[in-house]
Design a protein that fits this description.
The protein has 74 residues and is mostly helical. It is 91% helix and 0% strand.
């Protein structure tokens, strides 16, 4: 039983670390898309950046919720 608990805790720790890395990458993506959006003058590309920004923000929210859900698991 102890070995199973240790294994489960190790898997949770690994998943939390992966989520942290995904959250950082997504935050970087949001900043990058926002920069491109602010520099763009072509209306079509502006629309593209708006969709990309919305998608990245939704992903960021999902990852944060998932991370918070895992914090409660022991």
């Amino acid at each position: 039983m102890k070995t199973e608990n240790k294994r489960r805790r190790s898997l949770l720790l690994l998943e939390r670390q992966q989520l942290k890395a995904d959250i950082e990458r997504t935050r970087y993506r949001i900043d990058s898309v926002r920069n491109h959006f602010e520099q763009e003058i072509d209306p079509t590309l502006i629309d593209c950046y708006i969709y990309e920004l919305n998608a990245a923000q939704l992903r960021y929210q999902f990852l944060l919720r998932r991370f918070k859900d895992l914090e409660g698991v022991r």
